[in-house]
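Letters spell out the chain; the tokens describe the backbone. To illustrate:

===
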Amino acid sequence: MSVLDNFDSWKGFLADRLQQAQSQGMGQQTISNMAYEVGDYLAANTDAKNNEEAVLQEIWTAASEDERHAIASAMVKLVQNQGNA
């Protein structure tokens, strides 16, 4: 099963990568920029596997660049908060 097959696995994967980036001294802005690049890649190069992914892909496609950065930052906060729960 691919990490993209299950949203909880995907969040866990992102949380692990976030922790690694922070331990290597990456700042919040750098991490958010990387999340933006990943989101942009996924929206352009992957097919939605379920309704939730389809909605996220449509939102990403409709969003402006600033809005996409906000979505990426929100995803980073989601996995940060998951680790603090």
Observations:
- Helices lie at 7-23, 28-45, 51-62, 65-84.
- The chain has a mean pLDDT of 84.
- The first helix runs from residue 7 to 23.
- Residues 43 and 56 are 8 Å apart (CA to CA).
